[in-house]
């Protein structure tokens, strides 16, 4: 009888573990037609990364979130405007949860909605190197069908075209009007939006500019940040993916970045002139609010 009971307990535990494993692999909420499968690859596993070179990979691909988060993550309800200004606005990054409700905006950013509204409109792609120079204009439909795919691990920044920003404001205004922006302002600044869609493993290598917020609408985006006086070691024409796999593991302890992964429902704030690089873990739809 005891053996039977213990067998039942073990089986129950196995079923629970399997279920927890499945839950952990699920994309957050509804994938909007962007995240269709959950094949997870570990960022630091060389054998798995080799597969990134295969042209056959598609948007089903996902990178595992390594999980480290050393940036303050706060619920928006506990951060008054004064608290934000005093503690973060000019000092350090912060991730704020539940400060915006972009349910409606998110539904307008599903793959099918965007294709219906903007499929034939041209979007401007920029090379994903630190000093982006090359620009290519393609219809959104062509970008989604032909260009949106996982980043090859060995691609150079200059060979990688990224859809982020350069949005034709007249054409995209109707969508941007539906975006609920983060409710914190800096004195004497106004807002400008940059909207993007990019494949897993893609991202923008280290650079800096004025302050702003970044929100992921679908997918997950990992952020790496350094203060203005701590310029990171990076090659301006290597991708964030290659920095993460080749440089990051050998960083001396004192040179570790601030880092975290943001998911839908979270907004990351980066202060003025902070170095930052991004890595999309999934096919991601995202929007930045620049304060200038
Ligand atoms: O979201 C991204 O991948 C790029 C964001 C970025 O670098 C920025 O907002 O300046």
Automatic annotation (TrEMBL):
<feature type="domain" description="JmjC">
    <location>
        <begin position="171"/>
        <end position="292"/>
    </location>
</feature>
<keyword id="KW-0732">Signal</keyword>
<dbReference type="InterPro" id="IPR003347">
    <property type="entry name" value="JmjC_dom"/>
</dbReference>
<protein>
    <recommendedName>
        <fullName>JmjC domain-containing protein</fullName>
    </recommendedName>
</protein>
<dbReference type="Pfam" id="PF13621">
    <property type="entry name" value="Cupin_8"/>
</dbReference>
<feature type="signal peptide">
    <location>
        <begin position="1"/>
        <end position="25"/>
    </location>
</feature>
<dbReference type="GO" id="GO:0000987">
    <property type="term" value="F:cis-regulatory region sequence-specific DNA binding"/>
</dbReference>
<dbReference type="InterPro" id="IPR050910">
    <property type="entry name" value="JMJD6_ArgDemeth/LysHydrox"/>
</dbReference>
<dbReference type="GO" id="GO:0005634">
    <property type="term" value="C:nucleus"/>
</dbReference>
<dbReference type="InterPro" id="IPR041667">
    <property type="entry name" value="Cupin_8"/>
</dbReference>
């Amino acid at each position: 009888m005891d053996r039977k009971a213990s067998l039942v307990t073990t089986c129950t535990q196995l079923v629970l573990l399997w279920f927890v494993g499945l839950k952990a692999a699920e994309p957050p909420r509804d994938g909007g037609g962007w995240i269709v499968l959950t094949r997870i690859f570990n960022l630091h596993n060389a054998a798995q990364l080799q597969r990134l070179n295969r042209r056959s990979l598609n948007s089903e691909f996902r990178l595992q979130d390594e999980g480290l988060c050393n940036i303050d993550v706060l619920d928006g309800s506990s951060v008054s405007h004064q608290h934000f200004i005093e503690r973060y606005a000019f000092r350090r990054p912060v991730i704020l949860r539940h400060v915006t409700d972009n349910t409606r905006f998110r539904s307008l950013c599903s793959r099918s909605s965007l294709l219906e509204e903007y499929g034939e409109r041209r979007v401007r792609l920029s090379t994903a190197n630190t000093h982006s120079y090359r620009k290519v204009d393609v219809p959104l439909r062509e970008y989604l069908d032909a260009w949106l795919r996982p980043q090859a691990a060995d691609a150079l920044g200059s060979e990688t075209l990224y859809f982020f920003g350069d949005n034709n404001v007249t054409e995209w205004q109707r969508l941007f009007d539906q975006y609920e922006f983060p409710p914190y302002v800096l004195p004497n600044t106004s807002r400008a939006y940059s909207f993007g869609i990019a494949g897993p493993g893609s991202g923008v290598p280290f650079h800096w500019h004025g302050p702003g917020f970044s929100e992921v609408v679908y997918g997950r985006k990992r952020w790496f940040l350094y203060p203005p006086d701590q310029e990171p070691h990076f090659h301006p024409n290597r991708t964030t993916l290659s920095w993460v796999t080749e440089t990051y593991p050998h960083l001396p302890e004192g040179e570790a970045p601030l880092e975290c992964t943001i998911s839908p429902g979270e907004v990351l704030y980066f202060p003025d002139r902070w170095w930052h690089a991004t890595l999309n873990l999934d096919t991601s739809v995202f929007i930045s609010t620049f304060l200038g």
